[in-house]
Amino acid sequence: MRILIIEDEESLALRIKNVLESEKYTTEAVFDGEEGLEKALTEEYDLVVLDILLPRLNGLEILKEIRRQELKLPVLLLTVKDSVDDKVKGLDSGADDYLSKPFAIPELLARIRSLLRRESDVKSAAIRIADLLVNTSTHQVSKNNVPVNLTAKEYAILEFLIYNKNRVVSRLSIAEHVWGDNFDMFSMTNFVDVHIKNLRKKIERTEKDNIIQTIRGVGYIIRDEDENPE
Amino acid sequence: MKIRSRLTLWFFLISMVILILFSLATYWGMQRVMFQAMDKELDVVASAIERSYDPFFNRFEELDIFHENVNRFLEYYLIVYDDHEQPVYISPLTKIVKLDIPLNRERQGAGYTIKTIVADRISFLNSGPEGETSFRLINRRLFYRDREVGWITIGLSIGHIERSMENLLKVILGTIFVSIIFLALGSYFLTRQALEPVNTITRKADQISQNNLDQRIKVPVEKDELGNLAKVLNNLLDRLQQAFISQQQFLADAAHELKTPLSVLRSHWESELNNPGLSNEIKEKLVQDIETITRLSHLINNLLLLAQTEEIRSRFEFKPVRLDELLKDVLSDAKILAEIKSQTIEVIDIQPVMIMGDRIRLFQLFFNLLDNAIKYTQESGTIRINLRSDQGLGTIEICDNGPGIAKEDLPNIYNRFYRVQKDRARKTGGSGLGLAISKLIAESHRGEIEAESQPGAGTTFRVKIPATD
What we know:
By secondary structure, chain A is α/β, with parallel strands linked by helices. Chain A is 43% helix and 21% strand. Chain A has two domains: 2-119, 3-Layer(aba) Sandwich (Rossmann fold), CATH 3.40.50; 126-222, Winged helix-like DNA-binding domain superfamily/Winged helix DNA-binding domain (Arc Repressor Mutant, subunit A), CATH 1.10.10.10. In chain A, helix 2 (33-42) packs parallel to helix 3 (59-68) and helix 6 (152-163) packs across helix 8. Chain B has eleven helices and 14 strands. Residues 422-426 of chain B have low confidence and may be disordered.
């Protein structure tokens, strides 16, 4: 999952970035409002952590603009003051959640997970797909209660597919949400194929065991059997 | 030759020529003046002898009282002839000194000089160490009422003049010698002094690049030519900066205006991928379009990145980075791509190196280079990678055994959109900006990137980045 942090206090922004990266999220931090809005509008993110007080462009205005463009992008607002007014304004402008500074890192992470789940009708931190159990808070994956060891990228791909379950995602989307956009996409799509191949070897035991499905020429999909019983 | 050396040389040469001409003029002029005075003196004596002619006795009365009348009469070399060319008077000195008097000489009274050697030491001759001395003489006819009554050779030693002239020459040569030193030093320092502001301006102008276009040259003195030059340069810089800023702004605006509709387009198509009413064939086309759109917006991003070089360092997050660990991460990704083409990535050595850098950008840099190597090397080729730590530098070498790059292409490969083989590049994809960005990243880390290539044998890219302790 790819997360954008818009926060003018650089040390805080970089601290959040480090924490999120260690949680296997692909993360970018920008320090001013205009650039933040530009990125939020034109690039692929799964969530934005947005500060209210920003140079050049206020956080609430960024929020309104994101909503005006009808982007389905979860926004977690960081408010400095513990004032009700700020929170109300924020939520009314379209924020999905807020967090008052100073905050504890585990709470930030939990709220991010909750927002990502809410966006993709996943109910809890532990997600079950057939006999595969993925815990998004501990990043542990098990198959038939046997732990599966995944690399960071394999896990990130799996998580992205699960958050987008029942939807076809293109290889390009996967690459962007897992690697960011600093790379040549056409190597990266090859990359995705290889990682998915490796991932499949680890989580699919038999030919018929088909958790990740390939839509030839289009992309990949994880279907949630519970919701789409055959 | 530098202007400074030229100026120094010209100044020196001209001063020397003037000095030497002046010295020569002084020397010859002095000698001439002295000789003229002497000739005049000789003529006065000769005239006195001429006037004393007594036609009755056909002799020169003056000669009888010569030793009483003329001061220093002993010093005179004097022969008087009568109209039969017979010497009628010979002075005492004439008997001692042998002078080779040209008898056929015009007897018009013009002065001439004869050198001789006198063995005896005679004080007033002022002879040199070998007894050499000179005489100034005149020959002239003697007349009595327009009748020629004889002629005279009269001369004086000019030893003292010669000694004086020798001394003068010594003084002149000494002066010239000292002047050479002073002129050389003087002209050197003067031109340096005069050209120093030019150097200052040059250095300053050289330092100003697009990264510090807001800096200006200090105007040394308002009114002089160099002050003017500095002002003109500053005006030029003003205009450059203005143009640069508006170009940056234009690029940023254009990029924004282009990227927004592209991302709208993309998100629309992306959502259509889940439209059950569309056939798979159409979805495949949509994905291809999405890839094209993404390629475009990446191109725009990269162009923007390359255009905003001045800001780029401030956008990087510089942290201590273990280059060897980073390279291993890059390798684990690159190996996946290499396997697709059955290529081998051979690690020669990876030594631990710590640098200050932006992890993501450095990853991008090395991934770019490895990705290129993989793209341009044929199936089942070999790519070698090496990381050395030496002389405070982390040096990474990435060698492939691909087709190589022609010598004439090599200097251009970092240029934006430069493609070595146009048809090939289309197939391998890429925007043509990869190496330009790689170079930018390397240089933002105060490093450098260079390439060596042998067509047919392969290419080596070498990146050097300063290490921290």
